[in-house]
Amino acid sequence: MMARRCSTGLLALCVCAATFSYISASPEVCTNSLLPGAKGDQGEVGEEGDQGKLGKNGPPGFPGVPGEKGLRGQMGHTGKMGPIGDKGDKGDTGLDGPSGLKGKPGTTCDCGRYRKVVGQLDVNTGKLRNAVKFMKNVILGLKETEERYYLLVKEPKRFREASMNCKLRGGALAMPKTTNTNRLMADYVSQAGLTRVYIGVQAQSKDTNGTSMYVYADSSPLQGFAGWSQEEELNSRLSPTTNSSCVELLSTGTWGHVECEATMFFICEFPKSRRRGGGTVGGGRGTPTAASS
Asked: Secretion signal: which residues (predicted)?
């Protein structure tokens, strides 16, 4: 039994030795690394993946070629009416018209008996004219020029209320457009024992350029005359604030800026009635009412 085991172990030892010698004699070397196999067939296309994050903006490209000129657009809306322009020069005298037809001969009139009546009418007309002048200047307290009446209203009101009050009377806030008119109104204020009143001058609302200007109550611009003092003249060139965009007339004849919400007396002006051929010319309304003045 013992001998049998020894022969079996010897046989196994011989097999191992022969195998080792065969491996040693082989030109190939056995290593632990795995060699890649042959390239396989192309697989199927996978599903589309999710959209990636947006990348950074690239540099701006070169300017493109200018496009063709477009068609002319439609006419826009009509803009606001601009300020009234200066009065134009007087035109040349026209040619004389043709002579009219000869009239019928008049009748002989003995006017001697009417001279006394006409003379008495002239006297009565003069008295009536003086009475009307007395009523206007003394009773109503009006001042007048060749074209307008001026009434000092002694009711303290804000600028907007004063303007409306003059309109209800048939006139407008007084607008001193000449030196003589401004002086007459200033003396009117001084004789009444006052120091300042509202007049029809106010800053116009700002336009698209952000600038503003002072205009009269009839929306006409200040042209030819303005009663600003040197300091007020400088302030009037600046953009006025909403609260100080109204104007007052001092008894000295100068203009000043004032808040529109201030209450003070004011002067109204009224156009005179002009009659030509029996009709009223220029839309005059006659002597203004002096109620509550």
From this structure: 1-25
The radius of gyration of the chain's CA atoms, rounded to the nearest angstrom, is: 54
- Domain of 267 in residue numbering reads as 148-271
Does residue 241 surpass a pLDDT of 80? no
Task: Assess if residue 92 is contained within a domain.
Answer: no
Q: In sequence order, which residues have a C-beta less than 8 Å from that of residue 57 and are 6 or more positions away?
A: none
In 3D space, the residue among 213, 205, 218, 222 whose CA is nearest the CA of residue 86 turns out to be 222
The verdict on residue 97 lying in a domain is: no
Q: Is residue 132 part of a domain?
A: no
Place of tokens 């009711």: 155
Instruction: Identify the residue with better confidence: 64 or 34.
Output: 64
Query: Given pLDDT bands bounded at 50, 70 and 90, which one contains residue 283?
Result: very low
pLDDT value for 151: 93
DSSP 8-class letter at 139: I
| Residue 63 forms part of a structural domain | no
Give the model's pLDDT for residue 278: 39
CATH of the domain at 231: 3.10.100.10
